[in-house]
Design brief:
The complex is a heterodimer of chains A (253) and B (318). Chain A has 253 residues and is mainly α. Chain A has 10 helices and no strands. Chain B has 318 residues and is an alpha/beta fold. Chain B folds into 2 domains: 13-232, 3-Layer(aba) Sandwich (Rossmann fold), CATH 3.40.50; 236-314, Alpha-Beta Plaits (2-Layer Sandwich), CATH 3.30.70. A 6-stranded mixed sheet of chain B has the order 6-7-8-3-9-10, sandwiched between helices. In chain B, strands 2-1-4-5 form a 4-stranded antiparallel sheet. In chain B, helix 3 (105-115) packs parallel to helix 5 (147-159). The longest helix of chain B has 16 residues, at 177-192. Classes of the chains: A mainly alpha (253), B alpha/beta (318). The A-B interface holds A 2, 4-5, 7-9, 11-12, 15-16, 19, 83, 86-88, 90-98, 248, 252-253 and B 24, 59, 62-66, 83-88, 90, 92, 94, 96, 98-103, 107, 110-119, 157.
Amino acid sequence: MNIHAIRAIYRFEMARTFRTLMQSIASPVLSTSLYFVVFGAAIGSRMGAIGGVSYGAFIIPGLIMLSLLNESISNASFGIYMPKWAGTIYELLSAPVSYVEVVIGYVGAAATKSVILGLLILLTARFFVAYEIQHPFWMLAFLILTAVTFSLFGFIIGLWADDFQKLQVVPLMVITPLTFLGGSFYSINMLPPVWQKITLFNPVVYLVNGFRWSFYGQADVNVLVSAGATVGFLLVCLGVVWWIFRTGWKLKA
Amino acid sequence: MSPVQATTSSPDAIVSVRGLSKYYKSGLRALNKVDLEIRRGEIFALLGPNGAGKTTLISIICGIANGSEGSVHVDGHDIVRDYRAARGLIGLVPQELSTDAFETVWATVKFSRGLFGKAPNPVHLERILRDLSLWEKKDSKIMALSGGMKRRVLIAKALAHEPRVLFLDEPTAGVDVELRHDMWEMVRRLRESGVTIILTTHYIEEAEQMADRIGVINRGEIVLVEEKHTLMQKLGKKQLTLSLQSPLESVPEGLREWPLELSGDGQCLTYTFDTQGNDTGIAMLLRKLGELGIDFKDLHSSESSLEDIFVSLVRGGV
């Protein structure tokens, strides 16, 4: 194991994060705060509690997931796309590193940043609404698992993309709609029966509900199903990354 | 690439390329069964026109591209099966000025050293930066540097992990004369410290100045590998051609002491001589011709340059 290489990549990526602190940490925290102000404090006060949880508190897990997914993907995809775009990828390809080390470095840094961000949003939420965390261990586990999984997914997007537009298209056109329709802002029990069934095909439903269960001990789907679905997606992403590095797809001529 | 036996190359070869080919789906053959051995501690210049396969060859050796068939060993390590050991020995300075614009010089060389699996060593990095006149710029962002400075940063990155083999792909393309001479100086110093250097160039002057051996590649094939001195000897040869008034059947007995060649039709006598000798023998030859009553109507002399050799090789001649 080339530990020095993992450390070098990880530090390089974290340095990039801190260099762009406003963009990478401050702006997601700010936009999430706006959601709390609008949906939590302003509109939320006029909405009924869902399963005994006030609306403002109910949306916290979903809002954190929304940021976590978007930031994990954009971090990791930028991290690997930039060297490709700038041509500095030659160094990575010519270095004595295995794909495992490259993935640990890039995905580890992207996931670290997302977890920090998720915790910051959680802290920020404290200023707007009261909430409880019934299962702190599971809360952290879901947070980390989701961050790692979607950083891997972002890494794949970064490898696949050959222009900036492709880099943006998945977070914008796929992840954001799935998150909004995945029960971040409502319980799927509030939907008509047909839509309740359809919604179950949306993977984000499982992420949001697993996470919400760790806060309030209740969710629309079983927590084990949630955990299973997340781990399943993680394994799919690992498989795809393994294949990419083995074949050199989009990386090596 | 097919695994090949642990190499039958000579012990002083540090890079050994065997039967290396590279073809693309389009049918383009970028490299065609290339065999090449780079000797430990030498400066090897790979010459060739644009698109000849220089960069492809280097890219495969360094792990940036995959070969289609054949094998490459670096100090006995197969570049595919034993890629860690092989790549750890290699430093690469690419042709393009690809740098991380927002990083500082110091951060980027530190990154390179770590990436190649070496523990941090600020003393070594400082020495490299000082050698390359980059020390004052160590806290500058790379995007603030001039093109020549960026080129030096790439060299510093390639040297950060103390490689034993350094590839310089067109190191002086678009570089001003002063920096070019600095770079040549640095390459010589590196060689003295035992580093093997392989450089590609299309400046023949550069190969003449620097290299111990010269290889010429064209259309994906190595067409010549020779000691520079041997090539220089060819370069040092001059030819005197005499067009005779009346054809000869053979070179007359009295002219045996000169290495003369008679053309097929007997019309021309060609005398090849060494320009580096004090006595070219031309005066004696002409006097002797007069004595023997051999008249000539015209004479001209020509000199072959490395450039001529290069051009004729590339055109498929020689």
